[in-house]
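Please discuss these two lines.
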Amino acid sequence: MEPINGKIILKAGREKPVRQRHPWIFSGAITRVEGQPKPGDLVLVADSHGRALATGYYNPHSQIRARILSWDVDEAIDAAFWQRHLARAIAARQLLALEPHTTAYRLVNAEADGLPGLVVDRYGSSLVMQCLTLGIDRRKMLLAELLADLAQPDGIIERSDVDVRRKEGLPLTTGLLWGANPPTTMEVLENGLRFQVQLAAGHKTGFYLDQRENRAAVCQPHLVAGKTVLNVFAYTGGFGIYAVAAGAAAITHIDSSVEALEQAEANVALNGWTRPLDEYIAGDAFEVLRYYRDGGQTFDVVILDPPKFAHSQQDVEHACRGYKDLNWLALRLLNPGGLLATFSCSGLVSAELFQKVLFGAAVDAGRNVQIIRFLHQGADHPVLLSFPESAYLKGFLCRMW
């Protein structure tokens, strides 16, 4: 059992989020810290009268001073605690019955699974682990051993190379945590479709696993068969591979990375398809879309899956301008009756705000736009009701007329 090495005393009136089981304690909510907890130590979180509310791990270097692990102050935070939480998360994914047609999916979704700062994804026989916080980083070898026992992988790779670690005072790091290194490129299945992923160098942990259900929803035969499709921010194929499977006539993939587009083309071949009419365009998405607009080129289906535009609250206004411009351009490129699938993975941009941005783009483009389906992250990326920040991916499938 790990010792409790301090106590965080909250300001009067600031205990409500804790009582409502929000797992973050911000620096502005704290009146003082008792004891001398070191970064990553366990601390009690108490109200202004000193009454204990929860147990979490502490980081004086982060704006989020503590992340709560348990609201039962008598619960021991030990190896058995971490094992129970990991086992529960893994069991929840087994209930989704993704295997054998899908072999790449999320096993642990950080705060949404009661394990703040820990992300674990399965890729076939390998696991990829991200340690986003100092508290998790301190315990990562224990967590890797527990995961090895529970999930029985060949190897566990660390991809703790995300910028959020800098806010925790941590360096970016990657490498082998347990077992055997996977091959440089490995093949996985997603809804029966074949993809090659690079666990050591690919985006996120190798692939955008959170879009699995949206790829299937958007790229159905009755929506894209025989259609021309523009796949923007294509990465290694993703939506485009699904569109090929659904019978799209021609697909134009746009991405800034030549290497990603080469992998997208390889993924098409991997699934046994020959696509002479498809194009792979490397360039800035905004510039390419403007070029198509100026040239009068149009498409039946446009898919926009951009990277995160808002990394902090200060970025939100600028991000919304970017989303509006992007969607305005897409609407200008759509044929009458065409479909737009548009997404934002910026957690600071709510679904309501994103819809307002899309409305503004439609008004400026002079187009009538219907939302025919609301889209969100897959079931292996659950949303914790007491932690709305876990609902970061939102999207709309729209029809223009």
User: Anything to note?
Assistant: The domain at 208-400 is CATH 3.40.50.150 (Rossmann fold). The chain has a mean pLDDT of 97. The chain has three domains: 4-70, 79-186, 208-400.
